[in-house]
């Protein structure tokens, strides 16, 4: 879902065929970085976890030389972008699944916004602070659901305000894992996977469903 949504935003914002400068902060195993490099973009990933870096390098090693040469990994913390890059160095900055583990997310967000060239796209995937009680409640974990109401995690309203304050106001947003968040990690893909994806895609764009998704995918644009 996130890859599909990100591609939609890139196609709608940049000229077809333009090779973009992409920064993936907290790259993980490099799934999004590799996909974007395959699409012809120049991708730099920042990652501090040695296991993740090893997995990413192994994945990159299996690619043709033309794709490998468009990819670069920098070992470092997500908050150190200002140490490695000049302001305005990138057309697209990704930060997927990182903010929830950072002590000072506002500072990290501001640093990433500075990396964007004017008109650049900031793509964030975060845990939905407005709906932490949903999964526990749907599974009958009432104590967990009650605890979820007391979360201090980022919600849509706070993120919208933060993005406006750092000069990359919210352009659009999606819900991710609206109906499927309660599925077990080892669940087998259903036979009607295409239908499931179509439902998740529709729900992730539609109120009120997207507002209670497990994750939020927010896209800000640098002014």
From TrEMBL:
Keywords: Methyltransferase, S-adenosyl-L-methionine, Transferase
InterPro entries xref list: Methyltransf_11, SAM-dependent_MTases_sf
Domain Methyltransferase type: 23-123
A single GO molecular function term of this UniProt record: S-adenosylmethionine-dependent methyltransferase activity
Biological process, per Gene Ontology: methylation
Official protein name in the record: Methyltransferase
């Amino acid at each position: 879902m996130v890859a599909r949504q990100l591609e939609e935003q890139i196609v709608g914002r940049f000229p077809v065929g333009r090779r973009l400068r992409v920064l993936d902060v907290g790259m993980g195993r490099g799934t999004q970085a590799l996909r974007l490099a395959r699409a012809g973009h120049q991708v730099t990933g920042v990652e501090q976890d040695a296991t993740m870096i090893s997995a990413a390098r192994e994945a990159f090693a299996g690619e043709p030389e033309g794709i490998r040469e468009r990819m670069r990994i920098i070992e470092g913390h997500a908050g150190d972008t200002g140490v490695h890059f000049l302001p305005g160095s990138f057309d697209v900055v990704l930060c997927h699944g990182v903010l929830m583990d950072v002590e000072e997310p506002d500072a990290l967000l501001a640093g990433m916004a500075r990396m964007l060239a004017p008109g650049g796209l900031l793509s964030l995937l975060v845990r939905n602070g407005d709906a932490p009680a949903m999964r526990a409640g749907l599974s009958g974990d009432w104590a967990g659901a009650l605890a979820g109401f007391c979360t201090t995690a980022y919600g849509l309203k706070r993120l919208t305000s933060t993005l406006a304050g750092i000069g990359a106001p919210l352009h659009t947003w999606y819900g991710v894992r609206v109906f499927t968040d309660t599925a077990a990690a080892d669940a087998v893909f259903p036979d009607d996977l295409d239908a499931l994806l179509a439902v998740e895609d529709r729900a992730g764009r539609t109120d009120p469903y997207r507002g209670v998704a497990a994750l939020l995918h927010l896209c800000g644009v640098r002014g």
